[in-house]
Amino acid sequence: MFKLLNVRTAFWISAVLMAAGCSSPKQAVYDHEHFDDAGTFSRSYPATDLAYCEAGRRALLSQGYIITSSDPKMIAGRKSFQQTGDAHIEISFNLVCAADAKDGSSTMFANALQDRYALKKTNNSASLGVGVLGSVSMPIGSTDDSMVKVASETVSSAKFYERFFGLVENFLPPEVKKAAHIVEKPKADLGVPDVAPAAAEPAKAAEPAKLAPA
After folding, report:
1. Exposed, middle or buried, 30 (CB in 10 Å: 0-12/13-18/19+)?
2. SS3 9
3. CA distance 189 to 174
4. How high is the pLDDT of residue 160?
5. Does residue 52 sit within a domain?
């Protein structure tokens, strides 16, 4: 009897704990923000804020980004990528350069925002009136295609920003490179989202052989 009660008690306790676990709220996204100084989004060099941001502007221009701001200390640029016929990606880059307390040094803060768009089809219908012995309505249908934003996310890949800051170093003034002991290296591509391969065209069926007339 006691064993049966213990089994039932354990069962109900387990059920209550499982129900409590299922009903507990999910962890909010901002709980993952630790605000630690990882250095992913910033770099410092012995250069003025103007010279540093100019190097960042040239780095973005070299990768095909369209510059959309005119402030020499706040650079904004964007670039579009067409992955497939129904998907579109746009990356927006934002750079802010601030002078440090150290003599002649400054820090660049960089972040990139990736927006995803998908093709949305909208069906429209209209009526056409024809006055022949009365009024006749004929339904006419049309379809409008438009790109709709479906996702937006800050790029947090450390390797992505390493490539960017490495590219910025190539555009720093010679005296800054010498002071920071920067070795000239080939300009690397920033990298873009993976582009889906184009679908292969279906092979054409072989035409039947024609028989020569007897």
Report:
1. exposed
2. helix
3. 21
4. 95
5. yes
